[in-house]
Amino acid sequence: MEIITITEEAKHAVVAICNESVVKEYDFVLGYPRIIDHMVNFEKITDKQLLDDIEKLGKDSLVHFGILDNIIQSLGAETVWLPSILPRLVDVAGILEQQLEKEKAAQDLYKEARKVTIANKTTVKTGGISSMFQKVRNIPESEVIHADQIISKLDRLISDEERHMRIVSDSLATIKMLLNR
Q: Which of 4, 16, 94, 175 is deepest in the core (most CB within 10 A)?
């Protein structure tokens, strides 16, 4: 049996790109509850749609982190994530403007990882003597990575980032409107 996977060099490149997106976008994943708390208790914002959208961004970010972690681990590497020190919340709009830029940058990185995956597909034989070599290298057949699985996960992340950019942009506009009353 043959499986379409990606080259070892491509695996390293995709891992590096995915880890870069983790560092870039997910440094603030723990900040969403603080933003909501600040908006409700300090800014006295009660717009349910806005608060729900910010909460959804936080939850989606955790899901995305899990998807990236899965991609990275399935390629035989470790996820590198060092959350940054959360900034003092004085300017929620400014923080969301920064987050919008991070969403855009993450989407670009996912597109780059997708291109690398597509450009570096390779066929691996499994079963028979090929299976024996995989066992020697400690690679169970069930863990041979299918290129299409990686592409599918990256496609989801790319699509979700497009939606996130709209949510952050809309949330930013709403916050600016509410704070300028």
A: 175
